[in-house]
């Protein structure tokens, strides 16, 4: 006799740790066995097939071992999309939606802007902007070819046409282009930060997380390089750590950016800083 949906979920919750144990167990069952969370709630006494039990047990073991849920299921929600992810890309996070929001506040609804997303990873930022501003042309770059494969697949799955991809570091592959806006969620964690050993971070690609001893190496490169790639009055928006807003603002000011601002994320932490080119 195989366990019921309720029994297998109860057992999973007892093995998982953290405040989201219940949610994670339900998502694992939904993604690995195709049993939606709504169906789980309506039919808790339904027995699972042996095949589903084996699939769920395998996924649960991976999660207990520390593998991120997004890598096990192969997807993560961002904005209004369900994006494909893999260990080759950073897992999209709600805090990054703050960067999308700040960009959209500055892009007129009917604008036909040229916009660059540097270090696109899964393509989350670029795809959100492309969907919300369909008249704009988005160019997304990444040094990792494996990441670009994921981003291109997400663009195909979303049916997004106004986006192109280029391989290379930051602005290097689009060095002759000019943009009304450049956005970037760069690596910004210091190399010795203890958070790198917590949560999902140990499983995520280091090159997308770590940026020198103070976490600002990538930002120090991107800010001055952006000056020659922005049209007059163009915007540069950067995601950063909660304690880096002042440093990022100074770096923007040093190369002549005006109207410098910082906005907080949903947790009340400084998360996005940007400015306007002369």
Which CATH class of the largest domain applies here? Alpha Beta
Mean pLDDT: 96
How big a fraction of the residues is strand? 15-25%
For the biggest β-sheet, the strand order reads 5-4-3-6-7-9-8
Second-tier CATH architecture of the largest domain: 3-Layer(aba) Sandwich
State the share of residues found in helices, binned by percent.
25-40%
**Backbone CA Rg:** 21 Å
Contiguous runs where pLDDT drops below 50 for at least 5 residues: none
Helix-strand string: HHHHHEEHEHEHEEHEHEE
Q: State the domain count.
A: 2
Structural class: alpha/beta
Assign the CATH superfamily of the largest domain. Answer: Vaccinia Virus protein VP39
Instruction: Please report the distance between the alpha carbons of the first and last residues.
Output: 71 Å
| CATH fold node name of the largest domain | Rossmann fold
Gross morphology:
elongated
Total number of helical segments?
10
Biggest beta sheet attributes: 7 strands, mixed
Q: How many E-type strands?
A: 9
């Amino acid at each position: 006799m195989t366990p019921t949906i309720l029994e297998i979920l109860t057992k999973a919750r007892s093995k998982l740790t953290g405040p989201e144990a219940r949610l994670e167990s339900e998502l694992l069952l939904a993604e690995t066995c195709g049993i939606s969370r709504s169906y789980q709630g309506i039919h808790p006494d339904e027995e699972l097939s042996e095949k589903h039990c084996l699939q769920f047990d395998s996924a649960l073991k991976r999660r207990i071992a520390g593998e991120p849920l997004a890598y096990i299921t192969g997807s993560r929600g961002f904005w209004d999309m369900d994006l494909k992810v893999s260990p080759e890309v950073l897992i999209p996070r709600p805090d990054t939606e703050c960067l999308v929001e700040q960009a959209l506040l500055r892009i007129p609804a009917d604008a036909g802007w040229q916009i660059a997303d540097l270090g696109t990873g899964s393509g989350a930022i670029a795809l959100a902007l492309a969907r919300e501003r369909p008249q704009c042309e988005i160019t997304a770059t990444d040094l990792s070819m494996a990441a670009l494969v994921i981003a291109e697949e997400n663009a195909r799955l979303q049916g997004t046409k106004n986006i192109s991809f280029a391989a290379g570091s930051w602005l290097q592959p689009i060095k002759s282009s000019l943009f009304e806006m450049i956005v970037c969620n760069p690596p910004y964690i210091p190399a010795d930060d203890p958070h790198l050993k917590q949560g999902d971070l140990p499983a995520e690609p280091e090159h997308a997380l770590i940026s020198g001893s103070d976490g600002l190496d990538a930002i120090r490169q991107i800010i001055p390089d952006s000056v020659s790639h922005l049209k007059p009055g163009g915007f540069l928006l950067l995601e950063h750590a909660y304690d880096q807003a002042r440093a990022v603002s100074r770096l923007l000011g040093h190369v002549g950016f005006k109207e410098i601002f910082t906005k907080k994320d949903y947790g009340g932490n400084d998360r996005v800083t940007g400015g306007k080119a002369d």
